[in-house]
């Protein structure tokens, strides 16, 4: 692990502060003590994990950053809010879970805009932004599965999508070098469908069988898209060219 930098320490403190504020709101305003406790635990874990991210909080030239930046702070917020969203959902507070889930999704949109406007492109955002998306989705759908809100085949399809992405990226990076990541059309479309479907599942409204079918088709589409991107990357790397492919999140 690289030595701690001011940006790393600031990001860790920000994670703890976000967790404390969120926990206080949940405990004092919403009277959700259990969710508040899980939020604090999640904040501690995120702050601890950030201590290992020192190598990511650097400029494109490799120099340590003086601060994480606004876009990276929004990514940190998304990591911290995974615990309360899942805790609220598991505790039956569906309206609160949906409200926080919507806010979590908005941070995903806003951080990209902020990064472009403020020119805050860092390895931290490139690497951990999609990780936050994967963890938040997988955690929420795990709660859905445990509460018997989704069928097992849908969860396995989602898991296969992420396992394929992680394993494929690891193998290709090891063999052919770093892979340039960017959002793809299938990933964007499925992201919108996935968010809408998760919202309907949280509320327990809508034709659930139709929602499951649409989500399943979306996950399958992304799996096929990821396979084609991986194949193109191998072909281009073999020919000595840099691929323009990316990740379907």
Task: Describe the protein.
- The protein is 75% helix and 0% strand.
- The radius of gyration is 19 Å and the shape is flat.
- The longest helix has 31 residues, at 208-238.
- The protein is built from 8 helices and no strands.
- The relative contact order is 0.10.
- Residues 242-249 have low confidence and may be disordered.
- It has helices at 6-29, 33-50, 70-90, 94-118, 123-146, 152-176, 185-203, 208-238.
- It is an all-alpha fold.
Topology readout:
Elements: H1 6-29, H2 33-50, H3 70-90, H4 94-118, H5 123-146, H6 152-176, H7 185-203, H8 208-238
Helix pairs in contact: 1-2, 1-3, 2-3, 3-4, 3-5, 4-7, 5-6, 6-8, 7-8
Task: State the main characteristics.
disordered C terminus; 249 residues; mainly alpha; single chain
Relative strand content: under 5%
Total domain modules: 2
**Count of helices?**
8
Structural class label: mainly alpha
Report the average pLDDT across residues.
Answer: 85
Shape: flat
Spans of 5+ residues with little confidence (pLDDT < 50)?
Answer: 242-249
What's the gist of this structure?
With 249 residues, the protein is mainly α. The chain is 75% helix and 0% strand.
């Amino acid at each position: 692990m690289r030595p701690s930098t001011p940006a790393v320490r600031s990001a860790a403190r920000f994670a703890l502060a976000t967790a404390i504020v969120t926990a206080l709101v949940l405990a004092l305003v919403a009277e959700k003590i259990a969710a508040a406790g899980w939020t604090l635990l999640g904040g501690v874990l995120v702050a601890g994990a950030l201590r290992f991210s020192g190598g990511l909080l650097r400029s494109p030239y490799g120099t340590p950053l003086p601060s994480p930046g606004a876009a990276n702070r929004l990514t940190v917020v998304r990591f911290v809010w995974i615990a309360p969203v899942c805790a609220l959902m598991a505790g039956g507070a569906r309206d609160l879970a949906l409200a926080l889930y919507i806010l979590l999704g908005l941070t995903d949109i806003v951080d990209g805009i902020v990064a472009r406007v403020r020119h805050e492109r860092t390895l931290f955002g490139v690497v951990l932004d999609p990780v936050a998306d994967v963890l938040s989705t997988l955690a929420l759908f795990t709660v859905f599965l445990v509460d018997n809100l989704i069928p097992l085949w849908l969860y396995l399809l989602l898991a296969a999508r992420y396992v394929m992405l992680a394993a494929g990226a690891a193998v290709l990076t090891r063999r052919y070098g770093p892979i340039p990541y960017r959002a793809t059309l299938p990933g964007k479309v499925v992201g919108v469908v996935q968010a809408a479907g998760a919202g309907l599942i949280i509320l327990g409204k809508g034709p659930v069988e139709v929602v499951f079918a649409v989500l399943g088709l979306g996950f399958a589409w992304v799996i096929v898209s990821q396979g084609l991107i991986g194949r193109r990357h191998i072909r281009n790397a073999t020919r000595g060219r840099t691929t323009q492919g990316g990740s379907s999140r």
